[in-house]
Amino acid sequence: MVQEKTKITAPFSKETVKKLKAGEQVLISGKIIAARDAAHKRLCEALIKGEKLPIDLKNTVIYYVGPSPARPHFPIGSAGPTTSGRMDPYTPTLIHYGISGMIGKGYRNDEVISSIIKYQVPYLVTLGGAGALIAKSIKKYTVLAYEDLGAEAIAEIEIQNFPAIVAIDIYGNNFYKIGQAPYNTLLL
User: Fold this and answer.
1) What's the predicted TM-score (pTM) here?
2) Which residues are catalytic?
3) I need a labelling partner for 89 at 20 to 30 A (CA). Which of 2, 25, 42, 113 fits?
4) 68-71: long-range contacts at Cβ-Cβ below 8 A with a sequence spacing of 24 or more?
5) Which secondary structure element, helix H or strand E, spans residue 183, and what is its range?
6) Is 32:63 a contact under the CB 8 Å cutoff?
7) Is 183 left (phi over 0), alpha (psi -120 to 50) or beta?
8) CA dihedral angle for residue 31, residue 55, residue 130, residue 11, rounded to 10 degrees
């Protein structure tokens, strides 16, 4: 049975995130921010020093991606997700400063999950290994800050029907645990 995909808009509103459930498939349209671990580190270092950030974090959805160079006539090259755990040391701080969602792949640590629940910021995942397919939903890619980081620079991405799955909803339901539960009895 094919699950119906919910269409949502980024940045995510509070009303939207309250309705999202772990395991739900979504198609996201709107604007998101590309940022990986090097950019996360710089943002957090700037916050610690009391410096002004190069972007406003409030109501941004961050996609953990380091895209490959764009081919002629395309806004971006392959754009698959980066392992989210590499952002875990910085994520609670960025959640505190107002991001409205995260997209990546893989598990999150307990501190991040606590921040997801406290600040009502969902974590979504997309298809690892399918960067060329995901790039088809990216309509525009514009570097905003930290250009010296190359593929890890902070960029604004305009997306249309970007495929994702709600991995951890704002209530702490974790699709990694829910999805694996039926199979855990097989291992006993």
Assistant:
1) 0.93
2) 40
3) 25
4) 68/131, 68/151, 70/141
5) helix 175-184
6) yes
7) alpha
8) -30
